[in-house]
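Tokens in:
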């Protein structure tokens, strides 16, 4: 048996509590000592939502749950409570250290934005030179923040499959999306393949209003999308123009799920997939297909874009909590990140010429890749449960 304690801070009414387990069958029962209700049965692994009712007028109440399972060691407890706050001198020292790392990088980002802006009017006269120059400027910025993550803050990334990537190859890159730190993982692959300067990321249109970052994203030719397909098609045509007409090198990077993974989104996705007869991979959301199909159909017409890279990202905190990466602030603020987190990135390379031709078949191909990606993630979780390193090969048929 494993006990769960859930804090409910509500004046009245209900609050939803999401718990997760891996056992084949698990009975969740609220203790009779604290009231009635809140019982349920999990089957075949997965997640369940409990809605304990807070007493009327209560400002704070505590529900105690007990999970009973024949394989209690397979159970995943909820996320740990935050560690106790550090003392003021330690907090001040970390803040100063973080400022010394980040402020110079932000200054370089501002200078880069100014340089990129100066290149815009020249791009109609010397488009190739401006693209090469803006790519070099972008690489210096991405490389700077990557060094903060991997060198200054000691994030050791386990990389799998990168040896199959030809240096300098242009490709469409698809990936699951967990947290901000996903950018570091894909940049690690791009750096090893010699394509960091050529990364062009699908990003939310709202990011263009972010100080420092937004203008630079647009000036570097990043596709800023809104999820309104008619508008996004025009934006993609803008980005693809130089790639198709002038054969500019590119890594076109897309988080195919279009949003970060959360437990609530997973529950909603499971319901949608069940209602629509779709397959869903473990630890994932269902991939959006329109952008992927449009990218493949457009870029397969140019001979220098030759592959699709399917990237799988995984994290673990304290060698116990699967898919719990650090936040952006933690990646900047905390030293010795590898003492607390595992970082893993795997890539599979697929020749663009081998992909299906029709839109419908491409949609099914992407769905199949996401099911396989889920199997890969589940194997990583099992290794974590068994206390094994992610440096060992993951036995699977890709």
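Residues out:
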């Amino acid at each position: 048996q494993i006990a769960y304690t859930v804090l409910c801070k509500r004046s009245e009414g209900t609050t939803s509590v999401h718990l997760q387990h891996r056992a084949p069958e698990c009975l969740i029962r609220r203790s009779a000592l604290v009231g009635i209700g809140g019982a349920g049965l999990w089957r075949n692994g997965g997640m369940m939502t409990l809605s304990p009712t807070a007493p009327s007028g209560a400002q704070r109440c505590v529900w105690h749950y007990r999970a009973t399972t024949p394989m209690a060691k397979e159970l995943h407890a909820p996320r740990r409570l935050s560690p106790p706050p550090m003392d003021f001198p330690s907090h001040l020292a970390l803040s100063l250290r973080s400022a010394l790392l980040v402020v110079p990088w932000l200054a370089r980002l501002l200078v880069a934005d100014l340089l990129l802006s100066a290149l815009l009017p020249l791009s109609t006269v010397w488009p190739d030179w401006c693209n090469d120059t803006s790519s070099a400027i972008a690489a210096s910025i991405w490389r700077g923040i990557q060094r903060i993550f991997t060198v200054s803050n000691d994030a050791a990334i386990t990389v799998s499959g990168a040896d199959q990537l030809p240096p300098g190859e242009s490709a469409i890159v698809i990936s699951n999306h967990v947290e901000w730190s996903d950018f570091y993982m894909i940049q690690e692959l791009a750096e090893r393949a010699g394509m960091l300067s050529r990364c062009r990321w699908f990003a939310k249109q709202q990011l263009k209003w972010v100080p420092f970052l937004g203008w630079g994203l647009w000036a570097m030719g990043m596709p800023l999308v809104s999820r309104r397909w008619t508008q996004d098609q025009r934006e993609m045509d803008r980005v693809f123009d130089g790639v198709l007409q002038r054969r500019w090198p590119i890594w076109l990077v897309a988080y195919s799920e279009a949003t970060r993974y959360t437990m609530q989104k997973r529950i909603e996705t499971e319901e949608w997939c069940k209602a629509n007869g779709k397959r869903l991979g473990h630890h994932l959301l269902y991939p959006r297909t329109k952008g992927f199909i449009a990218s493949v159909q457009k870029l397969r017409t140019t001979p220098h874009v030759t592959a699709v890279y399917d990237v799988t990202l995984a994290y673990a905190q304290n060698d116990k909590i699967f898919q719990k990466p650090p936040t952006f602030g933690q990646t900047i603020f905390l030293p010795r990140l590898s003492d607390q987190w595992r970082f893993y990135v795997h890539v599979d390379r697929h020749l663009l010429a081998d992909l299906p031709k029709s839109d419908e078949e491409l949609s099914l191909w992407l769905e199949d890749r996401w099911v396989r990606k889920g199997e890969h993630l589940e194997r990583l979780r099992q290794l974590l449960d068994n206390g094994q390193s992610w440096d060992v090969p993951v036995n699977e048929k890709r």
